[in-house]
Amino acid sequence: MNPLLSVQDLRMDFAQGRGKVAQVLKGVSFDIARGETVGLVGESGSGKTTIGKIILGQLQATAGRVVFDGEDITHATRQRRRLLGREIQVVFQDPIGSLNPSRTIGDTLAEPLIAAGVRDGNEIRQRVADILQRVGMPVDTALRYPTQFSGGQRQRIAIARAVINRPRLVVCDEPVSALDLSVQAQVLNLLNELQRSLQLSLLFISHDLTVVRHVSRRTVVLYRGEIVEQGDAAQVHDAPRDPYTQALLAASPVPHPVLQRQRREQWRAQRTAA
């Protein structure tokens, strides 16, 4: 079966002035199957968010292709991109800035339904109520404003907005990095549950290898615009082969400080032995 999403030899250059060019992506390729979660992990500047923006049509790649369900969408028109918005959605890093503070949550969640052609007011209200309950929020959330909720609650609402039309692919760009560790676990569990129940495909972008392990079936490790390691998420996390992947694992936060120190000492020992 063909993958739902295929990223093929993506290259991205940014002009830096004085004739200099920065190569942000250097031939990145990976697939996402239907109903699969793939983690894309790397530190800041690795190019992972750039890949997400290219998939979403927010940036135009210098070279390469993005194929969605057999269709090359690399150069999709604005009209086609609007239609693809029903199939491909995004959850952003900032749960505060991603929600309009002047609109009620109900209006925010109704917007993608209206854009998809739903006009019946009763149906809209029912679907808004259903998705709020599905993400663990009370129905009367629809009557309130974003400023009345915590960061974790706002991210639940942002996830509700992304999945209310049951898209086939959701790009999650650092969706828990702005949250406390305890809240992160709750949001990750929610994403896992929605992925299974709605049969979503997820591209989960993060700098944290341990977080990616929690939600992903496969992991792709990106370093300075190139893939240095990819494979089964558990294997990449538990037995990383590339020194950069090992460094990412050592940098991942561990709740217990002694365990964190032991992990870092183990990584340093591996580096010395190499």
UniProtKB/TrEMBL annotation:
TM annotation in the entry: none
GO molecular function annotations of the record: ATP binding; ATP hydrolysis activity
A Pfam match: ABC_tran
Keywords (A to Z) from UniProt: ATP-binding, Cell membrane, Membrane, Nucleotide-binding, Transport
Source taxon at top rank: Bacteria
GO biological process terms held by the UniProt record: transmembrane transport
Database matches in Gene3D superfamilies: P-loop containing nucleotide triphosphate hydrolases
Residue stretches making up the ABC transporter domain: 5-249
Family assignment from sequence similarity: Belongs to the ABC transporter superfamily.
Protein name: ABC transporter ATP-binding protein
Keyword Transport: yes
